């Protein structure tokens, strides 16, 4: 007990927390900060999509924003999205320049380079949220439902989607949702860094499905 006490002039002894308790307190504070960042990021995504659905896009000084970003970036979320021209995350979530760290590819599946990009966003840019988003009427998923091969390099798109396609009994809409789950599972399995950050509470990994008809994004855990 004496080792945890120190003298204070004119006022006897005062308590001093054991050093082994200090890291725990710091860890708790960091965890609270990360939880707050995750909640804030999800709020921005949900509210931004709400504005998009209502046709009320935000207006901001793009020139000023561009100048602000010269010194660095601090996106509040990462998004793995399909290359489909109708699903641009920055527009769907009514986000501004520098707000989202995006990986796009037909079928929104991930390869080593994509995982490295996401790890950079999670570890170095400290994005608190990772969204994997599928969508209605995905051309890549439709093609994968019809065949596990295709002409030219398109085969490299349809083959990775077969796990989701088979799990969904080759139903395109169900396969789009299933593919999100498959991709999230693969990210967790193939990226120890992202998996660790998620387990520590420093990162939220969430699935999403975008409706072309309504414009609404449905978030779900996977």
CATH top level label: Alpha Beta
- Structural category is alpha/beta
Query: What CATH architecture label applies?
Result: 3-Layer(aba) Sandwich
Order of strands across the main sheet = 4-3-5-6-7
CATH topology: Beta-carbonic Anhydrase, Chain A
Straight-line N-to-C gap: 48 Å
What are the segments in which pLDDT stays under 50 over at least 5 consecutive residues?
1-21
Q: How many structural units, i.e. domains?
A: 1
The main β sheet shows up as:
5 strands, mixed
Number of helices: 9
Please report which band the strand proportion falls in: under 5%, 5-15%, 15-25%, 25-35%, 35-45% or over 45%: 15-25%
Q: Could you say which overall geometry the principal axes of the C-alpha atoms support?
A: globular
Quick tags:
disordered N terminus, alpha/beta, 15% strand, 222 residues, Beta-carbonic Anhydrase, Chain A
